[in-house]
Amino acid sequence: MTGTPRTALTIAGSDSGGGAGIQADLRTFFACGVHGMTAITAVTVQNSLGVQGFTEIPPDVVTAQIKAVARDMGVDAAKTGMLATAEIIEAVAATLDEVRIGRAAETQLVVDPVAASMTGHALLREEALEAIRSLLFPRATLVTPNLDEVRLLTGVDVTDRESQRHAADELLELGPQWVLVKGGHLYSDPECVDLLSDGVQYIELPGHRYETKHTHGGGDTMASAITASLAMDLGVPDAVAAGKRFIERSVAEAYPLGAGVGPVSPFW
Ligand code: PLP
User: Fold this and answer.
1) Which of 106, 107, 158, 262 is most buried per CB count within 10 Å?
2) DSSP 8-state secondary structure symbol assigned to residue 210
3) Of all atoms in ligand 1, which is nearest to the CA of residue 54?
4) How many whole angstroms from 63 Cα to the centroid of ligand 1?
């Protein structure tokens, strides 16, 4: 490659199975043509059958990773994934105020409010949800909850387009610039409609539902693809549309691996 690529930072947990978390983010950044950097928050022990446990990284080590790359290499856009504890979230929020995330004055931050794996294992200590709501949402360019996370964050049970819109409004009250309420978990909807809103525009993004159980790492992959597009100066609606195309292709090419749930495939 000639010249310097755009850069994207993921602040997230490691997945030993290589399907989600940091590993999915780095693969996606690579596939999208940006240089990926990492601030690891936790190390999970997991395979296709689920998460067996995790150990969190000390908050000062998490923040040192962010500062090290931001001050030297520069971060064009960042995303948060699994953050594990309230202490890590507090440290990350404080650090985001100290370093520049984004090429211009405006911060480019995607907050994926990861709470649990699809196999039902907690990836966030219970008391930490409030820290995500109060400390990260107000700093976010975009938040990308799935319907389980929407229920945890707002109490809204999304069952149709109207409740999806209501959930978007409730989430916007928490302070992010944009919210993407992902509809993939609404199995009654064959189109997996995601709703993107900044409180003025309500953009419905229909998609295709693929019949596969291999969707491990899907949320991470979509959020990383959006982050890569923000790093390349796309506006939020265009970045989300690009992320949606990317995740559809990744789910279409997901593969079985191990006895359980295989990963989506962010290879192009
Ligand atoms: N492990 C890590 C480190 C993650 O960040 C995530 C999701 O964000 C998961 C596991 C769960 O992935 P999934 O729910 O797609 O199986």
Assistant:
1) 158
2) -
3) 3
4) 21
Tell if the pTM clears 0.80, that is, is over it. yes
Query: What is the CB neighbour count within 10 angstroms for residue 152?
Result: 17
Cβ < 6 A, ligand 1 pocket: 12-13, 15, 20-21, 44, 51, 81-82, 114, 117-118, 123, 216-220
Which residue among 121, 220, 221, 251 is best mutated to probe the pocket of ligand 1, counting the most ligand atoms within 8 A of its Cβ?
Answer: 220
Tell me what ipTM this predicted complex has. Answer: 0.95
Give the residue among 152, 186, 187 at the shortest CA–CA distance from 171: 152
Cα 187 to Cα 119, 143, 182, 210: the distances in Å are: 16, 22, 12, 11
Which residue has a Cα nearest atom 9 of ligand 1? 117
Task: Determine the CATH number of domain 7-252.
Answer: 3.40.1190.20
φ, ψ at 35 (rounded to 5°):
-80, 120
Distance of CA 114 to the CA centre of its chain: 7
Q: Is the pLDDT of residue 102 over 90?
A: yes
Residue found under tokens 């030297």: 72
Over residues 230-239, the pLDDT tens digits come to 999 999 999 9
Tell how far CA 107 is from the center of its chain: 16
